[in-house]
Each structure stands twice: as C-alpha cells, then as structure tokens.
Amino acid sequence: MTELTQIGDISDSHGATAIARPTVYVYEAPVRLWHWVNAAAILVLIVTGYLIASPLPSLSGEASAHFQMGYIRFIHFTAGQIMAIGFLFRVYWGFVGNTHARQIFHVPVWRRSFWRGVLHEIRWYSFLEKSPKQYVGHNPLAQTAMFFLYTLTALFMIVTGFALYSEGEGAASWQHALFGWVFSIWPNSQEVHTLHHLGMWVLVTFIVVHIYAAIREDIMSRQSIISSMISGERQFRDGD
Amino acid sequence: MAATETFYDVIRRQGVTRRSFVKFCSLTAASMGLGATGAVDMAQALETNERVPVIWMHGLECTCCSESFIRSAHPLVKDVVLSMISLDYDDTLMAAAGHQAEAILEETKAKYKGKYILAVEGNPPLNEGGMFCIDGGKPFVEKLKWMAEDAMAIIAWGACASWGCVQAAKPNPTQATPIDKVITNKPIIKVPGCPPIAEVMTGVVTFITTFGRLPELDRQGRPKMFYSQRIHDKCYRRPHFDAGQFVEEWDDEGARKGYCLYKMGCKGPTTYNACSTVRWNNGVSFPIQSGHGCIGCSEDGFWDKGPFYERLSNIHPFGVEANADKIGFAVAGTVGVAVAAHAGITAVKRITTKGSGSTDGGPPA
Peptide bond before B195: cis, by omega within 30 degrees of 0? Predict the structure, then answer.
C-alpha cells in the first residue's frame, strides 16, 4: 500500500524525452503461479459444484455403463484438494514472501491512513474524486474486499468442503478428525451443504467484482493490474 | 419384578437350552460387529449381571418410538421386555396406573440409585414453566430432572428427545427442547429417527444391559454401530447416483426402473441411520426401496431443512422463501448489473472529461 514516489523523466541525446515509467516488482513468481492455478481450480469447482447440486439430465441404459456423477464429483474433489494445498502454500508464502504477499491475510483497521484510503477509494468509485491514487499493492478498499470476500470465504469453503468430504470417507478418516468439528456447529450436514452452496455464490460475486475492478483500474488509474499478475511488475504510466 | 435375577436364570427357567443361549449370544454379537470374543463376553455378562432396571418416560411425543420398539424382531421385543431388562415403568405398556404406577418411580429411584437406565421418549417443552406437557399433575420437565438425578445413563429415544423434531420446528411455540440441553450432567445416548428402527432400539438396550456401559458414541452422541454411515453410503440405488441416473418425475421411466431419488429431494446423502442396511419391519423394506426419498428424519431440525421433495433446502432471508441458488443468483446478478452500470458511467465520464479538455485526472494522449 506504499504510495508511489515519482522519479523524473530521462532525455536521450536527440533531445526526445523517454517517459519515465516507474516499475515496481510486486507479485513474486510463486504468488502469480498460485493466482492462476487457484483461479483455474475455483472455476472448475464452481462448475462441478453446481452440477453436483443440480445434476445433468438423467442418463438411460445400464448403470454399469456410466460414471457421470462419479467423474463430476471426482473432479470437484481433486480441484478442491488443489485449492486447499494452494491455500496452505499461499499462507506459507505470506510469511516468507515480500510485504505484498501478506496483504490478503489482514485488514489494518487500526491504521488511520488505511481508513482515509478506504474513504478515498469509495469516493473514487462514486465518481466524487477526479483523480485516483496509485498503490504498489492492493488499494485499501481492494484489500478489504480481498480479505472478506476471498480469503475468509475460501477458508470457509475449504473447511466445510473437507467436512462434507469426510462424510464419505468415514468417521475414522483424517478428514473427519481434522474437520468433523464443523458438524458440532451444524449437526445436520444438509445445513452445511446449504452454507457451502451459498459460499460458492459469494465467490462468484467476488469474481465479478474482482475482474471488473482489475480492468477498470488498469485503464482509469493508469497502472498495470492485469499484466502485473503475469509479469509480477506494476508499471505506473503517469503520476497524479 | 425380581431384579436380582440374571438374564440367564430367566431364560433357563423359561426352558431355553444352554445351546440356544450360546447361539443367541453368537448371533447378537455378530450383528453388533463385536468380533470373535464378543459372544463369550456377552454370554459371561448375561450369566452374571443383574438385569438392569429401565424406566421409560414419555414427554412431548407421538409414541411412534414405542410403536416401533414393540415390533422388534431381532431380538423379539418380548424377550427384551420380559427377560433381558427389567422394564419397571412405562406408562403406555404397564398394567399399573395412577398412584400405583408413580410409586414405582420412587421405589426405583431409592433402590437402584445410580444403577437404572432412564429411557426418554419425547422431550420437555420449557415455555410457560413447562405447562405444555403435564404428566402426573406436574410439568414433564420436573419429572425428567427428578428421575435423571439418580440414573446411570439416559437414552434419548427418537428425533424428539435427540434433536427436538416436529414440536421444535420453527417457530417452536412450546419451546420443546432436546434432552441433552436440559440434562447436562449424565451420559446421554441419542437414538434419533422418527421413529428409530426397532432393531436399533433393542440393539442399544441389549448392549447396555449386557455390558453395563454405553456403546461407543460419535461426535453427536449417537451409537457408532448404527449411525456411523449415511443412508446414501449403503443405499442399493447408489450405483444409479454415481452413473448419473435419476428419477426426474414421480411417474417417469427412471422411477419405474428404480433410479436414484436425489433430484426428488432424497436426504439420504445427509442422513445418518441404518435404514439401508437393517431396513424396517423385519428387514422387509425402507423408504427408498419403496420408491420414496429419505426425508432425513434422524437428523437435527429435519422439518426446517425442507422441502422434502427438492434437493436444495429452503432458506428464509427476510421472510421470503428461496434456496441457495435463487439467493446467490440474485446477489451475483445484482452485482453484475451494478458493475455494468458502473462501467457505463465510467466510460461516459471519461469521454466527457476528455472532450472538455480538462487536464485534472485525464491521462495525456
């Protein structure tokens, strides 16, 4: 969230000015790799999860000739395990990576500058501010959305997902030992299914907002957002 | 009843041979999954243990648990009631009535302090001081607490005693409360179901009277031997689920062929019970075998997790009926429309700002 310090333009021998485009290395390679693997896993999870709750039209013929629901569930469980391992890795990287890698795991509500930043972003999105602020990492509003809509929801989905998976694996499984406590909170697993399903819609909503904000800020705030998640570098096209 | 007799004494007196007794032990041990030495332990226990006194009380309930219990075939309920346990009090089954019946409670409480089993069918309503269920002139909750004081353990029969069942469904006007929320200082074994399977009920009683301890319980307090798996895990229609073959309408080809009832709202995937293995009425059938989905009667708050005939549960945000998909689609859709509108305003603003030649905030060309 460090605000950018501007450096001057450089002129070449012909007198033409090469515009200085300050570039900061923000997203380290493991973060970028996680982002795209995770995005793919979540996309698969949403589609297969929806099909588990509302299966495709019934197939005819012998039951032994098909394994449609079995495959859909297998893909869902596999993608879920990938997402879970990715999440664990991402937490680890929050500790060993750079400061930007820690952003999605906390909201600095104790900082006055954070609240000023949130207010500025709300005004910016309400068209009340004429110029945007540029941030090296996530802006304060983005950080808040990321923490509540993504990080907490993802954690909830992983925990309830493994709890539901443990029902098939049985009471002696490690999944039940680690996540069976979910059923102490909600004894009827139908309730856990409903909450897991609502969690999916929170993630769908997050994706809509996330993609829109990334594209919009890329254009409006004159800083690279989308390509940053590929190259890792954030380029600032001009100052404010 | 002579409670100092052992089970073995009683059945020998009834003319059962030792050979038949040992056979019974082997079969019962096998059906409980007790392993090779289980039969020996069981025979030993039945030969030496005193018959356990059982007090069976009825709170806010419909007596379907009793109806189920008296239809047990393995073991026959007459063997359980007359030989294995000493059912000293059950106001629907016993001959005594009125003060004569109530005197048995006093007697058992004094004579078998800390040794009797308290089996509770139904639950106590707590609202208005418990006046929604009066038993022997007093609120049932008082009788329950009084008899629970000196009990060895409590069996919570059925969904009522275990979870609350229909009388605890929203808005629960009588504040019907499951046993474990009222009695917190005694071991409680939950045997949920509406009603529980007869053989599960007698099986639990047999286990406790035989071994003098509770069977191993799961996280919810249910006996693991009958409630560790879902209906779905052992359902004979499971291959159709895995294949993707579902009943779509009650009168379609899939219904006739016995396809999976998942889309018809079957709660088998979220219901822990032994219906798909033990079945009902001496193993004749169970709901899914009869072509109807499981309604999840042995689960917490199953009346409020409906509809019974749809896969997704109704949730009631702001008093409107909807399910997770309807709410999620509405929220994501609204956000999507808002995003599109925001993008539109952004584009218009950008064009107008550029057109007016303003330099503040507008990027250089």
Answer: yes
Test A238 with B243 for CB contact under 8 angstroms: no
d(CA A239, CA A222): 8
Clarify whether residues B197 and B269 are in a common domain.
Answer: no
Residue B343 has its nearest CB partner, among A187, A188, A212, at: A212
Cα distances (Å, whole numbers) of residue B194 to A239, B68, B140: 70, 9, 21
A67 contact residues in B (CB cutoff 8 A) = 242-244
Residue pairs spanning A and B at CB distance below 8 A: 148
**Residue B101 near residue B56 (C-beta atoms within 8 A):** no
Residues near A123 by Cβ (< 8 Å), separated by ≥ 6? A129
Q: Give B2's contacts (C-beta < 8 A, 6+ positions apart).
A: none
Of B300, B324, B335, the CB nearest to A198: B324
What is the per-residue pLDDT for A10? 60
Asked whether residue A93 is assigned to any structural domain, the reply reads yes
Residue B50: exposed, middle, or buried by beta-carbon count in 10 A (0-12, 13-18, 19+)?
middle
Whose CA is closest to B328, among A56, A159, A196? A196
Name the domain count of chain A: 1
Interface test with B, best of A67, A71, A169, A189 (most B CBs within 10 A): A189
Which residue numbers in chain B have pLDDT < 50? 1-3, 357-365
B53 and B151 assigned to the same domain: yes
Question: Best residue in B228, B325, B351 to probe A by mutation, most A CBs within 10 Å?
Answer: B325
Closest chain B residue to A187, measured at CA: B300
Question: Residues A157-166: what's their mean pLDDT?
Answer: 97
Indicate if B153 and B25 belong to the same structural domain: yes
CATH number for the domain spanning B283: value is 4.10.480.10
Q: Which residue of B lies nearest to A236 if distances are taken between CA atoms?
A: B363
Domain match, B256 and B207 both: no
Instruction: Assign A227 a pLDDT band (cuts: 50, 70, 90).
Output: confident
SS3 (DSSP) at B103: helix
What's the pLDDT at B71?
Answer: 85
Residue B342 domain boundaries: 312-365
Q: Which residue has the tokens 């949730």?
A: B315
**Residue B263 domain flag:** yes
The ipTM, to two decimals, is 0.87
CATH of the domain at A231: 1.20.950.20
Q: What are phi and psi of B26, to 5 degrees?
A: -60, -45
* B4 token code pair: 């100092």
Q: Does residue B165 share a domain with residue B102?
A: yes
In a domain, A57, yes or no: yes
The domain in which residue A159 lies consists of: 10-235
Burial class from Cβ neighbours inside 10 Å (0-12, 13-18, 19+) for residue A68 reads middle
Q: How far apart are CA B152 and CA B155, in angstroms?
A: 10
Rounded Cα distance between B242 and A79, Å, is: 18
Q: Residue A126: closest CA among chain B residues belongs to which residue?
A: B342
What pLDDT, on a 0 to 100 scale, did the predictor assign at position A154?
97
Q: Which residues of chain A neighbour B241 with C-beta distances below 8 Å?
A: 69
